Amino acid sequence: MRGAEEIIQDARREISAYCLESCDADCCKRGGLRVSESDAPLFGEVGACRILLNPCPNLDGSRCSIYDQRPDTCANFPIRIARLGERDVVTIGVCRAIESGVIDLQLSDLAELKYETFNK
Question: What sign for the dihedral angle of Cα 35, 63, 66, 9?
């Protein structure tokens, strides 16, 4: 059986395809991205961790212009393994792909590995 990280990478690929084909980068256009101090220059920002409330400045239409250099916040959205107390869980952000059932198979595979899923 595949491990959790492999399953999540597969889920992210499915979500990325859905994003480009169906939702037109809606999450990136809505804003709300938490940017660390080290990633701030990628967004034309300086200073401590902050949240960009406007659409991402790196969008070129509906595509990310810094995709190969995007920060972990972007690369890991909307599904990741997180630590909750003594155990690892899967957290899921708000995403049309997930709402549409695009990764139901991967979520089922994670459940078989005894991962609980929490929506952020």
Answer: positive
